[in-house]
Amino acid sequence: MVYRSGVALLIALYPGSFDPITLGHLDIIERGCRLFELVIVVVLPNRSKSPLFSVEQRLGQIRPSISHLANAKVDSFEGLTVDYARQMKAGVVLRGLRVLSDFEKELQMAHVNATLAGELETVFLVTSTEYSFLSSSLVKEIASFGGPIHHLVPPHVALDIHKCYGKTFPPTKTESVQ
Ligand code: ADP
User: Fold this and answer.
1) Whose C-alpha lies nearest to ligand 1, atom 1?
2) Which end of the chain is more exposed for a tag (fewer CB within 10 A), N or C?
3) Assigned CATH class of 3-131
């Protein structure tokens, strides 16, 4: 393990709302696992958004999604990412970048974290092209209208989302005549 200023550079935190986890998130986690010794997916409650799933449900969705990755684990934390990083002795915050609008928000967060904890590096991975449009909110919007989401999230997550909206895809006969 490589340490600098007492933190392990090769432990990366991947914090986010993950409400719910998408294949775009999973792509970042898998690629992160190739770069770092350990990737800890950190579910943050995110008070500014009203979530579809509880933190417990999100943890339950992420666990089987990352079970094929020996060096990934999931946890939740309420508080500042820098405090959790200190607790875990993590040296890196991993984030994904999709579009220019992500960049502004992400850059601000990286600077804030750097002022709070100078030993913490933020590493950005550029989204894989096929997931560049994908967000948790988009998945929820499609599902709320009964659209297909199986190509956007792991299968067990698609089931959970459809249960929430009381819709299935493809629509059952009764749904399609409404
Ligand atoms: P937050 O609520 O903090 O934005 P999210 O769960 O939406 O958390 O996302 C966590 C991180 O994953 C963010 O850095 C976000 O930019 C990144 N991300 C989300 N979707 C994708 C995607 N399709 N491709 C790459 N990165 C993504």
Assistant:
1) 16
2) C
3) alpha beta
